Amino acid sequence: MVGKKQSSGRSRPRRADAASGRRRRPKRGAGGSEEATPARIQSWVDDPASPWGLMERPAPVLDARPLAFSISGEAIPVGVYDPGTAGFRHWTAADSLRRTADLWAPLLGRHRVKRWQPAETLPVTLDAGSDLNAYYDRTQLVFFHSGRGKAAVYSGESPDIVCHETGHACLDALRPDLWDAPFIEIAAFHESFGDITAMLAALALPQVRESVLPALVANKASPLSRIAEQLGGAMRRFHPAAVESDCLRNASNRWKYVAPESLPASAPATELSAEPHAFSRVFTGAFHDLLSRMLRDTGPSPSADDLVAVAAAAARLVIDAVAAAPVQPDFFAQVGARLIDVDAAVFAGRYGAVITDVLVGRRILTAATAPGDRSDAATGKRAAAAGGPRQTLEINAAPYGLSTGGILVDVPRAFGAGAAAGRRGVAATDPTAAMERSADRFIGVLFENQRIELPARIRAKGIAASAPAAGGRATHVLSRTDGHLRLSRLRFDGVGW
Ligand SMILES: [Zn+2]
């Protein structure tokens, strides 16, 4: 894929008119004028299909630590390449990868996280073949292409998608215990964190802050809130109902929380479902509200500089809150309650009223449970639950058409009537039974969406009989262990079908 196409497609360094995104050739003197040009690359600002177009950027240092990357394949010389070339795709992806790692690295560092979950350097495959998706599988980030020629869509060419996937890797570095957590809200929060990452990484760009300011103050949809416009458009041709009308997922939305266990496993994008990408829109919507409300709270006419401060505060709030949130079925509320705790501890309660208002408005918290106790969020320590005592639950596999014992999942030992219990009442009466019900529904949703891979030579009837083959689109796998099956995660991907 790389190689010939790349060298023939490589353009000479050019200057870009940042405002219009139009490129023009530099005036070429009697040779040697390029030597003085600092190392620059060209990239999409937000998404190939976003109206924000192209930008020139200093060449990113991909292997900078902490959170280094290495893109597989031949090294591509630094330069301003034309869209449609492998060189352009390489440096667009590199800029998005580095910008995301630079966004989260200082905040992860406060939690003593200085490397990826799998290694110091995270490998990246920019084009693993034909698919409309992308994933993080704890060994690498993987992107694909779909279609040919000018109509080809490369998921690794969209900053939205690259930042989303890198977000999964950043959250996995901070909270590796979320990986196998068998609850819909935790899978959905991971997806939401990916989209939040895409927005915050975009807000690291001055031109994005300037452009988005009016829409964000008005809490309206914008290229910032529209995640993966191009991939969403490509999806729409195959699955018209499965994506939003103008992007893959829109953070500017009105979705309100309902217990995801009560929702169908999948639904058109115009409805809420328990599918994690679809359900993630509830928390992402709350985050978009939060950005808007925090911005408006800065004064009568917020500036792009105010947005710098608000984005930095929002990033700090989210990281410290998720670092402290215990693995529980009601994970949105767990993170939500800790947003309030972190605000009290770090920002002296400056944003507390806004956070409460937004989360109660989204029904993530109820008015009665909103002000959380002072949890370990205040100390900046890792969640106690991350390294706390565990228990194994056995979920009955027979309803899914499997006769091989039960499906084993690991969850934390039940909380007493402590911080989590009573936040929204989910865990108040019998926490273990609540976790069991939630894990059972999580497995059901995975089976219904054909996201669980089965071990070889297993007898399956019912819904398990239509499980995808190895190497397919599964996010989870069942493996045999002592007459039982154990559920573990294979990957987080970018789209939900
Ligand atoms: Zn994802």
Q: What can you see in these coordinates?
A:
36% of the residues lie in helices and 13% in strands. Strand 16 (476-481) and strand 17 form a beta hairpin. By secondary structure, it is α/β, with parallel strands linked by helices. It is built from 12 helices and 18 strands. It has a 5-stranded mixed beta sheet, with helices on one face. The radius of gyration is 23 Å and the shape is globular. Among the domains are: 1-26 and 36-159, no CATH class; 389-493, no CATH class. Residues 1-33, 372-385 and 416-427 have low confidence and may be disordered. Bound molecules: zinc ion (ZN). Residues 164, 168, 191, 194, 492-494 line the site of zinc ion.
Question: What's the quick description here?
Answer:
This protein is α/β, with parallel strands linked by helices and 497 residues long. Helices cover 36% and strands 13% of the residues.
Counting DSSP E segments of at least 2 residues, the number of strands comes to 18
Estimate what percentage of residues fall within beta strands: 5-15%
Largest sheet entry: 5 strands, mixed
Helix % is 25-40%
Bound molecules: zinc ion
Please tell me what the overall shape is: globular
Q: What distance separates the N and C termini?
A: 26 Å
* Strand order in the largest sheet: 5-6-8-7-18
Element layout with pairings:
Layout lengths: L3 H6 L5 E2 L6 E2 L15 E5 L9 E5 L9 E4 L14 H24 L11 E5 L8 E3 L4 E3 L1 E2 L6 E2 L4 H16 L9 H20 L2 H12 L8 E2 L1 H10 L10 E2 L25 H21 L7 H21 L6 H16 L5 H10 L22 H4 L2 E7 L9 E7 L18 H18 L3 E2 L22 E6 L2 E6 L2 E2 L4
Parallel strand pairs: 5-6, 6-8, 14-17, 15-16
Antiparallel strand pairs: 1-2, 3-4, 7-8, 7-18, 9-10, 11-12, 13-14, 16-17
Helix pairs in contact: 2-3, 2-4, 2-8, 3-4, 4-7, 5-8, 7-8, 7-10, 8-9, 9-10
This protein binds zinc ion (ZN).
Zinc ion (ZN) binds next to helix 3, helix 4 and strand 18.
